[in-house]
């Protein structure tokens, strides 16, 4: 499923020349990088209070793994609503505010800054918005991602619904150390079939060996500059930069390598497991 939808994204990206923005040395059959200024926003003028870009899949299609960014201007709150399936959200910019239950009351919302991870649980009422700050969400799930608004309730506030949303603030995310890397599993199990979401942090000055994955995967660069190369020879001088805010599609069974140079980097990883890495013999 992921291979098919990511393949469509790759075709479109290649047609638009997205992979050439950072250099032609990447094999577009293996990795496609899309810079933030290449995103195709629903409102190209960026005047809407809520704007959206779909990076992967079709949120309206049953069974499609979708990934989109929703960004919000300051001073707006949406109505209480629910979705038919779980949604998995990483706050990638600014800070939004979240609440649950049928009454939208910003005074009882929780501030969710950049680096927060959240789950909107299926068929449970929740709402969100912004106050003085802007905000942006990276959202993934399996379609359809229908937004179903509830009848408006003016109050008074009678408490939220703790079962409607899970919120992990940045200091609540559990990391596992592994040499120069650390990983946080946020949703699913990368070792098993099914959708997974992880956060991956690599310390500066580290490149991995050439490897492949059995399934397509999607990366969003949260902080720093990620460097990527294709083929079976690691040469940091030939690596292509994916700056903060960029997205990468990494396709199944393609040999590639990646890492960091002069700064630590954090990325969000999304895909369908298993997310096994198989080393490739490196060219001399």
Query: What proportion strand?
Result: 35-45%
- Tally of distinct domains: 2
- If classified by CATH, what would the architecture of the largest domain be? Sandwich
Q: Could you spell the SSE succession in H and E letters?
A: HEEEEEEEEEEEEEEEEEEEEEEE
CATH class of the largest domain: Mainly Beta
Q: What's the number of helices?
A: 1
The count of DSSP E runs of length 2 or more, i.e. the number of strands, is: 23
CATH topology of the largest domain: Jelly Rolls
Rg over alpha carbons: 19 Å
Task: Give a nutshell description of this structure.
The chain is mostly beta strands and 284 residues long.
Describe the secondary-structure layout.
Elements: H1 2-16, E1 31-34, E2 50-56, E3 65-72, E4 76-77, E5 81-82, E6 87-100, E7 110-113, E8 117-120, E9 126-130, E10 135-142, E11 148-149, E12 165-168, E13 176-178, E14 181-187, E15 194-202, E16 211-212, E17 217-223, E18 226-230, E19 240-242, E20 247-250, E21 256-259, E22 265-273, E23 278-279
Antiparallel strand pairs: 1-20, 2-3, 3-10, 4-9, 5-11, 6-7, 6-8, 6-9, 6-10, 8-12, 13-14, 14-15, 15-22, 16-23, 17-20, 17-22, 18-19, 18-21
């Amino acid at each position: 499923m992921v291979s098919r939808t990511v393949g469509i994204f790759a075709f479109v990206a290649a047609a638009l020349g997205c992979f050439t923005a950072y250099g032609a040395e990447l094999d577009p059959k293996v990795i496609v990088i899309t810079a933030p200024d290449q995103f195709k926003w629903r409102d190209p003028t960026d005047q809407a209070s809520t704007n959206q870009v779909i990076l992967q899949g079709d949120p309206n299609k049953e069974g499609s793994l979708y990934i989109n960014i929703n960004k919000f201007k300051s001073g707006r709150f949406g109505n209480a609503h629910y979705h038919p399936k779980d949604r998995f959200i990483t706050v990638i910019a600014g800070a939004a505010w979240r609440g649950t239950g049928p009454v939208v009351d910003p005074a009882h919302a929780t501030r969710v800054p950049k680096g927060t991870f959240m789950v909107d649980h299926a068929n449970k009422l929740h709402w969100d918005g912004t106050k003085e700050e802007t905000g942006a969400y990276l959202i993934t799930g399996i379609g359809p991602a229908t937004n179903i608004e509830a009848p408006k309730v003016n109050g008074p506030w009678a408490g939220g619904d703790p079962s409607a949303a899970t919120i992990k603030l940045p200091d609540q995310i559990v990391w596992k150390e592994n040499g120069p890397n650390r990983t946080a599993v946020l949703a699913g199990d990368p070792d098993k079939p099914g959708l997974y979401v992880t956060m991956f942090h690599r310390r500066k000055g580290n490149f991995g060996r050439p490897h492949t994955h059995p399934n397509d995967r999607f990366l969003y660069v949260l902080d720093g500059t990620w460097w990527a190369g294709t083929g079976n020879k690691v040469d940091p001088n030939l690596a292509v930069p994916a700056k903060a805010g960029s997205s990468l599609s990494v396709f199944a069974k393609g040999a590639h390598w990646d890492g960091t140079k002069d700064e630590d980097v954090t990325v969000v990883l999304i895909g369908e497991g298993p997310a096994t890495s198989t080393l490739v013999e490196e060219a001399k």
